[in-house]
Design brief:
The strands form 6 sheets. Strands 9-10-11-6-5-12-13-16-17 form a 9-stranded mixed sheet. A 6-stranded parallel sheet has the order 20-19-18-21-22-23, sandwiched between helices. Helix 3 links the parallel strand 5 and strand 6. Helix content is 39%, strand content 18%. It is built from 22 helices and 23 strands.
Amino acid sequence: MQVPLKDPVCGMSVRVDSAFSVSLHGKPVYFCSEFCRTAFLRDPANYHSSTSGESLETDTPRRIAYFSMEVAVNPEMPTYSGGLGVLAGDTLRSAADLRVPMVGVTLLSGKGYFDQRLDESGNQLESSVNWNPTSFARRLPSSVEVSIDGRTVRVGAWQYDVIGATGYRIPLFLLDTNDERNSSGDRDLTAYLYGGDQRYRLAQEVVLGIGGVKILRALGYQQIERFHMNEGHAALLVLELLRERKDPEMATWDFNSIRERCLFTTHTPVPAGHDQFSYDLVQRVLGDQWPLEVLRMLGGADRLNMTYLALNLSNHVNGVAKKHGEVSQAMFPGYAIDSITNGVHSVTWTAESFQALYDKHIPGWRKDPATLRHAVSIPQEEVWEAHVAAKETLIEEVKRRAGVALERDVLTIGFARRATAYKRADLIFGDVGRLREIAGSVGPIQFVFSGKAHPQDHGGKDLIRRVFEAGRQLRDGVKVVYLANYDMALGKVLTAGADLWLNTPLRPLEASGTSGMKAAHNGVPSLSVLDGWWIEGHIEGVTGWSIGSRDETASSEQANAQDAADMVEKLQSVILPTFYRDRNRWADIMRQTIAFNASFFNTHRMVQQYAANAYV
């Protein structure tokens, strides 16, 4: 069952697989009949408000502005690097489905994050991404000015409409400094996501936070009541809000009213991960627009810490899982930090075979993913058939990308996330001899990995090479494939097609993690360290299996040894025997994974929690 949209001419429902459609601003518009399509083509401007999504306060006033350095709204738009951006995109998708009066603000990232190539030894090679924004969004005529290094920098915007299940649209504004009036260096400020040095990064955050508020005002969004900062990259927006409320004749600043309008979601569980800038650099980039004593009061005495800036001027602060909320509270004991556990957008991350299965047995799941709890009643054989179809798609994709033929009946373990040391992608290969022996005596295993290392993360790059080396050592007994250029499209195929989802972060460094939630929407159980969301989603032998204990006092070396041993032991004694010898039990675990985890760990539930706890 496809979700109906509204015909912009007659207002009747129309399916997205309708034969009657046209393309407007690079996006399809659907009609119920040739009559309506012809009427639309005669005068498209007459129906502009039905198709543009640009309310400019003439439609439902937008009350919430959601700021994120990266947002993943389309697999072909490289405006994201990983989990933070995917979460932001899923947030906007669910907000659109739920008709939350929101707008989004991000950077255009005109040359993307980077394209990843891997040589035969696993060495990562990076190159710029070439993409054309005009294929996906439309450039708006409005622009604003921000001051960077004492220069005036013009900031324009592109609009991409996130369309909900009922046709409700949330405009996402992608900020762009590629203006011929800017210097060449300034034109590149919105080119590379997370690129450049500290000065480049701070300048980008000026564009996002200060330029973002200004562009909203220029576009007519005057009724924004809540400014939601998704991580500290956007924290400079509080300075622009302070400037707006500052009486030039008075020496006072209206801190309290700004605090009432701002909320902050932190995603980083370690102090070193929070953006910080020297005040010498801050004064050089920002100039004297805000007194240094005010910046030191709000952002820290020694360096401008963007997390402190956001904390000090937000009336709601939350981590992204219960455990992460506790970790953040301990890190910042002077602040009240709540938690709202992340989720994923259910329809986006559910494979077509499972979508059809849910449409058949749980017809309301698209609008209310909580109803996925009824998955326990879906016949086992139908769950397995849907999984086989998703796995076949993965096998075909691996063949296409890597030229490796995976076995259809072999337990396939998936692992895909940012390649960085604490994720421990190579933990499963701590004892390749034992792994080979288990695969030969208990049941065969094959692995599919994916994930990018930041260009400056040399430890992450070493991790990729170690996975390649383990694959060479195991080539006669266990297939190990590492797919390059992990993105939304590959992520969906991987999380849906694996038989088991592996997650091995070093405790307590996983803020939330969402790849296991995506897997759960496709009935794929997790084998995961008890950290982040999995502490809440784990029921041993019901939704998957844990790795190690919850002990956080062990050294990293001790934790590595203990977790590796526990993981391999569970593979040998529990997981492989169940997969190969008790298919009914495995299908039960799949149903339970959907019912317990997919029904809760979704962004519909998450956005509703934000609406109840932070947006009101």
